[in-house]
């Protein structure tokens, strides 16, 4: 197979291998790594009907990570998708009310981030060995709730690594915070910041771009890398489950080979739907990519107008992992629809940084034809949880409910009744208070673990081990800082 190299969205002259891109996370000038071309699946789509999740993962990832040997890649995959998932199939596909919910929450932190963050540490350590890296790798991550815990769980006690996670102190659910602050591992460090997710993400990006700090780190035997969705070690594993979902639908004879499906993804940072876009361009017969937003509907407005504008009120919602106004992964799509023009992309990103907005050209708008935007208000999200529960007994979390509502509206407006896969991105137990209040219309201020038991009875589903074990877990991280104090607290942890 021909080797696939990666270039930067802000400097196309930069050319690195997959393992180098995984290690760096972000290009030196702030661009994101993107493959020089999107590889084809390389075999007929019907072949995927008979594959396990691990087999599908190898077929997809081997097309992108061409500098990994078969043995290296299969080792990473087998270590990632094992008994830490509570279902053998890894990502079940469940039909409810005419749509197919791809349950991506059966991993150790009961959210879709496990699908990529279970494999990222293994990809990174393999990449470090391949590139003769002697420094310890410091994973620096901002989280809106789910990435943090999934990254902590993946990297805890992994030799040669340390992980530092920043999260908005009052911007995640009680369960999400508890999962992070109880994380074990001498190499883990969790910090709440006074600010929102965008503040945390912006702070992390500034630290990555700080050349003097990088030099200081190197002298102490450290180098930064990223576990955020901007890392192609995160993005490519997400492509796998869209290919897998199509294979399952073929296997269960829900569709015929070549029949087009639609995909709906609740998204704030854009990585999860960008992965579906890559799956489509690899050859998976996907028609529309339906991008579902909550009240922070910056992406919905962008798809309608061609203007990306973060200068707006920021809302804390019941779907906090989507409370984002700067969708970092969108930059990769912007680069592609600009005809892979790094100068044009760089100019738009400069405008976003300096003025908070940019507008794409009419020609670029044509590149968005694969996408449809939709959004749900808080009331519509809660109403959809209640409706689906009363109709089918199936319980959605708040993020998946946004996608479910947007899908319903899309069908009403367009009459498009293609079979549709909805990415179900978190367990309802992760957002128990909001889910129970949506179902029964009552206020729930009880202890989070009492709430979990109530939800378990309501949904007729056992409490996931990832939640029940939190009850007795001690709080190990209680660090808080201002958004301009992130660099100092990193130095404190690394004893610099």
- Characterize the overall form: globular
Low-confidence stretches: none
- Average predicted confidence as pLDDT: 94
How is the biggest beta sheet arranged? Answer: 6 strands, mixed
Overall strand count: 16
Query: Percent helix among the residues?
Result: 40-55%
SSE-based structural type? alpha/beta
User: What's the end-to-end separation, in Å?
Assistant: 44 Å
Radius of gyration over alpha carbons? 21 Å
- The number of helical elements comes to 21
Note down, in words, how this protein is organized.
With 496 residues, the protein is α/β, with parallel strands linked by helices. The protein is built from 21 helices and 16 strands. The strands form four sheets. It has a six-stranded mixed beta sheet, sandwiched between helices. Strand 7 (161-168), helix 7 (174-181) and strand 8 (188-194) form a beta-alpha-beta unit. Helix 1 packs across helix 5, helix 10 (232-251) crosses helix 11 and helix 16 (378-392) crosses helix 17 (398-414). The termini are far apart. 53% of the residues are buried. The mean pLDDT is 94.
Features:
496 residues, alpha/beta, five-stranded parallel β-sheet, 21 helices
A few lines on this structure:
The chain has 496 residues and is an alpha/beta fold. The chain has helices at 18-24, 53-64, 70-80, 114-117, 120-130, 146-155, 174-181, 197-208, 211-219, 232-251, 271-282, 298-305, 330-337, 342-355, 362-365, 378-392, 398-414, 432-440, 448-459, 465-468, 486-493; strands spanning 6-8, 11-16, 33-35, 93-96, 99-103, 136-142, 161-168, 188-194, 222-225, 261-266, 286-293, 307-309, 357-359, 371-375, 420-424, 479-482.
């Amino acid at each position: 197979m021909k080797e696939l190299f990666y270039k930067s969205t802000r400097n196309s002259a930069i050319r690195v291998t997959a393992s180098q891109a995984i290690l760096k996370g972000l290009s030196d000038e702030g661009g994101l790594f993107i493959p020089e071309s999107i590889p084809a699946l390389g075999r007929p789509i019907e072949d995927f009907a008979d594959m396990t999740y691990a087999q599908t993962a190898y077929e997809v990832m081997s097309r992108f990570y061409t500098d990994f040997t078969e043995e290296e890649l299969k080792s990473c995959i087998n270590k990632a998708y094992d008994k830490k998932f509570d279902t053998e199939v890894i990502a079940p596909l469940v039909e409810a009310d005419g749509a197919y919910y791809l349950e991506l929450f059966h991993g150790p932190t009961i959210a879709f981030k496990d699908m990529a963050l279970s494999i990222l540490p293994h990809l990174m350590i393999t990449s470090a060995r391949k590139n003769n890296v002697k420094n310890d790798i410091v994973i620096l991550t901002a989280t809106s709730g789910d990435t943090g815990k999934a990254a902590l769980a993946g990297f805890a006690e992994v030799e040669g690594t340390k992980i530092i996670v920043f999260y908005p102190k009052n911007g995640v659910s009680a369960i999400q915070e508890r999962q992070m602050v109880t994380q074990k591992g001498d190499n883990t460090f969790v910090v709440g910041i006074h600010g929102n997710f965008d503040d945390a993400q912006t702070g992390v990006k500034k630290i990555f771009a700080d050349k003097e700090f990088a030099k200081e780190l190197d002298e102490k035997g450290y180098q930064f890398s990223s576990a955020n969705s901007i890392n192609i070690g995160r993005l490519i594993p997400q492509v796998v489950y869209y290919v897998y979902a199509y294979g399952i639908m073929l296997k269960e004879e829900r569709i015929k080979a070549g029949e087009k499906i639609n995909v709906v993804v609740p998204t704030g940072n854009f990585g999860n739907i960008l992965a579906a876009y890559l799956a489509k361009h690899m050859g998976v017969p996907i028609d529309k990519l339906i991008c579902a937003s909550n009240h922070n509907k910056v992406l919905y407005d962008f798809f309608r107008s061609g203007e990306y504008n973060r200068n707006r009120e920021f809302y804390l919602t019941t779907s906090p992992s989507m409370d984002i106004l700067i969708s970092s992964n969108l930059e990769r799509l912007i680069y592609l629809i600009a005809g892979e023009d790094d100068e044009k992309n760089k100019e738009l990103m400069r405008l976003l940084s300096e003025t908070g907005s940019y507008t794409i050209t009419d020609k670029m708008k044509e590149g968005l034809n694969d996408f449809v935007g939709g959004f749900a208000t808080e009331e519509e999200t809660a109403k959809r949880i209640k409706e689906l529960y009363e109709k089918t007994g199936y319980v959605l979390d708040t993020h998946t409910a946004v996608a479910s509502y947007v899908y319903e509206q899309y069908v009403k407006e367009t009459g498009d009744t293609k079979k549709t896969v909805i990415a179900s991105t978190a367990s309802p137990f992760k957002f128990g208070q909001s889910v129970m209040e949506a179902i029964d219309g009552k206020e729930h201020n009880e202890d989070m673990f009492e709430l979990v038991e109530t939800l378990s009875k309501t949904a007729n589903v056992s409490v996931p081990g990832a939640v029940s074990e939190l009850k007795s877990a001690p709080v190990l991280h209680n660090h808080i800082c201002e958004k301009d104090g992130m660099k100092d607290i990193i130095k404190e942890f690394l004893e610099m």
